[in-house]
């Protein structure tokens, strides 16, 4: 997001030392450059909330030892190939929409 706290001297030094290339996205471009923010993470959030509610209704809870199992289930439900493709279509990245 371009905030100066994300590009401190220590951060840049670490990146250079570890041969990490830093890419900064222009502000106000999420709708075009971040398809997962636009159309994938919303369904994931909904699937996660639904699953947690269902678990709660059954008297179960999400803990460290079962988090990955439950999160993986919600992720598989939400982040389907069609959801990901739709996200890229919605942003115009693929198929390419120059407008």
UniProtKB/TrEMBL annotation:
Q: Where is the DDE-1 domain?
A: 1-88
Q: Please give the coiled-coil regions recorded for this protein.
A: none
Source domain of life is Eukaryota
The GO molecular function terms of this record are: nucleic acid binding
Supply the InterPro entries for this chain: DDE_SF_endonuclease_dom
**What is the designated name of this protein?**
DDE-1 domain-containing protein
**Which taxonomic lineage does the organism of this UniProt entry have?**
Eukaryota, Fungi, Dikarya, Basidiomycota, Agaricomycotina
